[in-house]
Amino acid sequence: MKRLFVSILGSVLSALLLWLAFPPVDWGWLAWFALVPLVLVLRTVSRPVQGCLLTTLWGTCFYGVLLWWMQQFVHRWTGSFWLGLAAWGALVLSQTLFAGAFGALHALANRLVRGSALPVGWTTALWVAVEWLRGAGAWGFLWGQLAVSQHNYLLPLQSVELLGVWGLSAWLVVVNASIAEAVAQRKMRPLLGAVELSVLLLLFGWWRLSPSPAPEHLIALVAQPNVDTTRQWDEPMQQQVKSSLSRALAVAVRERVNMVLFPESLVPDATAYPFSELIRQATAQGITVLIGTFEEEYGRSYNTVTAFSAGGDVHLYRKQHLVPWGEYVPLRRWTPWVEHFGVVSVDVSRGERLVLLTPWRIGTPICFESTLPRIACGMVQQGARLLCVVTNDTWFGHSPAAEQHLAFCALRAVETRRWVLRSATTGISAVFDAQGRCLRRAELFTEAYLRADGVELRGERTLYVRLGDTAAVFVVLVLCTAWGVLSRRRGV
To answer: Which of 287, 278, 280 minimizes the C-alpha distance to 225?
Structure first.
């Protein structure tokens, strides 16, 4: 009974420590040892059911607290507290299933090595594999990804240009698992590999904080109109958006910028009057305008970024990774009853290709796409020299979700070594350089215009971009597995 109590306590403590590493508390340094209690609990477990139950408890606590904003989000959307609670519970359950799978596989591997503690490399490989599966496919969701906890720490953050977020997550697990082994064995020897790896990667980070300058720059304006576009699109709403758009474009002309970025789905159709006339006046001054719209074509609706260039050309990017039940309903034909629960009544269609908006070859991840590394990676592989994220986080209100969503941009910047400009309808808009520094940001629910001077248009490709997202994960898994085999042979 005492051992069970200690195991439960260790799982809960680990989950709460890791939650503190993410916004709103944002003590990212805790992530370097937050998993130690969990690994100590799992290292002696050889029954898959027991391992599954312990990590399911961990996942319920961690994701339950981290994702509480989902209840507020759906409550605001539907007006029903209970629907919000059900949506939160379903999301937490879906993520906890992955945590349970990690525990079961860890215990099974422990049994296969005949009761001895699982090598650090194998624990790391399991974690990264499960984390990658959590973000794979059309329903991929990476909120709470271990690497994102380091968005404010520039030295370790630079390592993501090598093997992406998967490499940084692996590094964090290596440190946690090594500390757990050192505590369990009461020896310092298990820490040697983690210390050597950390020193090398921190030195790499220090070196990469001073990159070579880019040959081409532009001046951009990131607009945060602070308009609640979740309301009904009526005449007062249209006038409010028109006024906000007019003020932002006037600032862009006065500041003599090259480009102005507006958020996701700000207007239904930017080619319609009066928005088209305002945009035409700006492009006549040599300003390229990027704005979030909804495009209708052949009876289909697309969540779109439309770029109006100074030369008169119009370019489009249609969102590829749609949010289930937020932008489309899976299996809608067989589940018509879900429309009574506040889900979208008409499905948004998926874009077919990663279109880069000219004239500077810009990749434009839309909202949730910024949380998935493969989207930005694919855009840069196709030649994007700058990333412009557009989003509408109004639904999040003042919850921690806004800060949590913003944190992903720092990793997208370093993975690809591209500047990231982020325009959010009510916040948080921000400007990140290629080293992941947040140079400027706006506060929630304020109207703001962020001028970004010297925005670099970079063309180099990081190792992560050259490999691609899937190959980078494969390399991490191979390295961790090989390290585990070598550790077993040496008896470390």
So the answer is: 278
CA dihedral 142, 159, 436, 21 (to 10 degrees): 50
**Has residue 312 got a pLDDT over 70?**
yes
What's the distance, CA 290 to chain centroid?
Answer: 22
Residue 284 makes CB contacts below 8 A (sequence gap 6+) with none
Separation of alpha carbons 172 and 35, rounded Å: 9
- Residue 191 CA from chain centroid, whole number: 30
CB atoms within 10 A of CB 203: 11
- State whether the Cα torsion 319-359-226-149 is positive or negative: positive
Q: In DSSP terms, which residues pair with 448 in a beta bridge?
A: 224
- Can you tell me the distance from the alpha carbon of 390 to that of 406, in angstroms, rounded to the nearest whole number? 11
- Please report, as a single letter, which amino acid is at residue 489: R
pLDDT > 70 fraction of the chain, expressed in percent and rounded: 95
What confidence category does residue 232 fall into, taking pLDDT thresholds of 50, 70 and 90? confident
**Separation CA 492–CA 488 (nearest Å):** 6
Token duo for residue 153: 């720490």
Q: Which residues contact 463 (CB under 8 A, 6 or more apart)?
A: 161, 162, 163
pLDDT one-digit tens code per residue, 378-420: 999 999 999 999 999 888 888 999 999 999 999 999 999 999 9
Dist CA 71 CA 87 (whole Å) = 7
Instruction: Extract long-range pairs of 17-26: CB within 8 Å, 24+ residues apart.
Output: 18/62, 18/146, 18/149, 19/61, 19/62, 19/65, 19/66, 21/149, 22/66, 22/144, 22/148, 22/149, 22/400, 22/404, 22/407, 23/400, 23/403, 23/404, 23/407, 24/400, 24/403, 26/152, 26/403
Give the alpha-carbon dihedral of 345, 346, 351, 356, to 10 degrees: -80
d(CA 87, CA 82): 9
- Check pLDDT > 80 for residue 78: no
**Would you state the pLDDT for residue 331?**
64
Whether the bond between 428 and the residue before it is cis, its omega within 30 degrees of 0, is yes
Q: pLDDT at position 275, please?
A: 85
Q: How confident is the model at residue 492 (pLDDT cuts 50, 70, 90)?
A: low
Among 41-45, 72-76, 118-122, 197-201, the range with the most confident prediction by mean pLDDT is: 197-201
Chain segment 347-389, per-residue pLDDT in tens: 778 888 888 887 889 999 999 999 999 999 999 999 999 999 9
Residue whose tokens read 């009526």: 234
